[in-house]
Amino acid sequence: MMSTAPASSRVLPPHRRPELLAAGAATVTVVLWASAFVSIRSAGEAYSPGALALGRLLSGALALGVICLLRREGVPPRSAWRGIAISGVLWFGFYMVVLNWGEQQVDAGTAALVVNVGPILIALLGARLLGDALPPRLLAGMAVSFAGAVTVGLSMSGEGGSSLLGVVLCLLAAMAYAGGVVAQKPALAHASALQVTTFGCLVGAVLCLPFAGQLVHDAAAAPVSATLNMVYLGVFPTALAFTTWAYALARTTAGRMGATTYAVPALVVLMSWLTLGEVPGLLTLAGGALCLAGVAVSRSRRRTAAIPGQVGPTAEPRREDAGRV
């Protein structure tokens, strides 16, 4: 018997559209954040950690400010400022400086291992402070992805020197990242993704102003390619990717968004292969595949039994699934 339901309802149920938009936003974020590692490697040769962070934040704040003016976005309401300020200090400011510094002290493998503690901390903090659920699929997916990140890290170890200071800095970066995400989530209930990102970026830039003199000094001696990479970091992995991140975060839990970022190591391996000619070994490729598999598991939906003769969704989506990406 042929269905009489409209074709559009069979192709894309109405409740799925926000979910797919959020998934698209998360994908943009992950791809651009992966590209940031390649650009940081280039710009970091000419710019000190603090100067690179400030230049990136100023470029991002300028791009975001122009967009806010064009869209006539006003100042966020007072209720959103606590989360914006905390995420601006921890994630936009402190995180970017200590991560740049840490990656100069340890090899890429060690940095990947330590920083990827971040998504686990996000899930735990989200459950503790925001009341987010920790469903078995999310925990299983994060375990698989973390195993992949460990594999990638071990396969890349030995490509540079490591130090206790570098490990501590990368761990501080992971903690700041987790704290910033959890602080940002409540702010998105009161302000738009663009507002939260723009003013968080401004807070981070103000925090990094003490590095202004170093930025001027480094810019005078830096090659054009390094400066262009710094501007790219500000406009795309910061202004665009942090906005799409906030858009997706507003529609799902902090833990699920954190798990999504486990796709970054796999994409970094691929981009380094294509742009830098760094051919990955079999162990690195296997780790990247595990990272992607874990993300797929954490994002998978539990199947529901279909009711005979019913067309379309069998029931209203559960609240925890309504914004899943």
What is the secondary structure topology, with strand pairs?
Layout: H1 7-11, H2 17-43, H3 49-71, H4 78-102, H5 108-115, H6 118-130, H7 136-156, H8 164-187, H9 193-207, H10 212-221, H11 224-249, H12 254-260, H13 263-276, H14 282-299
In short:
This protein has 325 residues and is mainly α. Helices cover 73% and strands 0% of the residues. The chain is built from 14 helices and no strands.
**Unreliable residue runs:** 1-9, 304-325
The SSE order reads: HHHHHHHHHHHHHH
C-alpha-based Rg, rounded: 20 Å
The percentage of residues in β strands lies in under 5%
Instruction: Tell me the major beta sheet.
Output: none
| Total beta-strand segments | 0
Overall geometric form: globular
- How confident overall, as mean pLDDT? 82
Structural class: mainly alpha
| Helix content percent band | over 70%
- In whole angstroms, the N-to-C terminal distance is 34 Å
Number of helices: 14
Characterization of this structure:
This protein has 325 residues and is mainly alpha-helical. The protein is built from 14 helices and no strands. Helix 13 packs antiparallel against helix 14 (282-299). The longest helix is centred in the first third of the chain and has 27 residues, at 17-43. It is globular.
Name the features.
disordered N terminus, 14 helices, globular, 325 residues, mainly alpha, disordered C terminus
